[in-house]
Amino acid sequence: MHAWPASEVPALPGEGRDLSIHDTATGGLVTLDPGPVARIYVCGITPYDATHMGHAATYNAFDLVQRVWLDTKRQVHYVQNVTDVDDPLLERAQRDDVDWVELAEQETALFREDMTALRMLPPRHYIGAVEAIPGIVPLVERLRDLGAAYELEGDVYFSVGSDPHFGEVSHLDAEAMRLLSAERGGDPDRPGKKSPLDPMLWMAARDGEPSWDGGSLGRGRPGWHIECVAIALDHLGMGFEVQGGGSDLAFPHHEMGASHAQVLTGEFPMAKAYVHAGMVALDGEKMSKSRGNLVFVSQLRRDGVDPAAIRLALLAHHYRSDWEWTDQVLREAVERLGRWRSAVSRPDGPPADALVEEIRDALADDLNAPAALAAVDRWVALQQEHGGEDTGAPGLVSRAVDALLGVAV
To answer: Of 57, 224, 258, 290, most Cβ neighbours within 10 A?
Structure first.
């Protein structure tokens, strides 16, 4: 599966900063010091609907991670999956009487268009669950051989008790885990499971649903968590820097994935930092496909909204915060974009070297994008009030905003 084209990232004078970022597993900031190649895995979409602002906010956060690392002259090895076979996709296809493969391809193509418009840097490897199946099957068989998986009526489950570190990503109690498991795709009430929390690794073939050859597992399709584990281990290995996604993925998805990988490899941890973006709400409720309260990036683009303004609306909120999308949020972003573009189009301005360092400092401090925007706002206001004599300043500001914030002005 191919990703989307990369926009050019301008090189900036000076030195980038090492990133300190909030790690859900430890509950505090960790300063990441990768080698020459920084590794990041971000969980991708289940393509049964278009990209909404909650998706965009999440991918914007991890785009900033990439940009901070690129500014330190590191290479970034970024991997993202597409869950192109799963219950929600099959249910939507059946509801709309369309082929599930065509639906997945259509929505994935639209996602690529949205990411391109928003200037999100693409992953080096963009892998679909279906194409990952040949690598998933041996992992499930290995877990079974290790005694960490068991069969139940043809399905294969992972035993969470096989990982001594289970629970160390989300730090939730058993009852909270059980409730979230039921809400987020698990089946804690299924009779016969060793633990209500045990997640499915391989679902035996069901009538009327797609299935694949699973070798000794029989025909079926993979569970959600093992999909990401197989892709991450194949392309990044253990101990990569950042496992990312929305805060709703901390449990069960990232918790289960970490346990799968740790049992498979005997190594700990799977990732050095588990990083989670906040949720975006509309009309007082979390924006989600199940509720239908969605604002789509593609619809905003069709309505003539500049993608740079959409990106500024996302950047105005700290990535870990929960916030609400409103017309006012977008209006303020459009106005900010206009001020910035007006400023960088002038022939000169106040010196901007210090501004570049302010943006770097803000982003290195847990991706504090609102502080970075405020710094640019101050430079723009100073230029408007007092002008300046530095003919190179507007160009430097334009390049810095593009390189570090992904906003084309």
So the answer is: 258
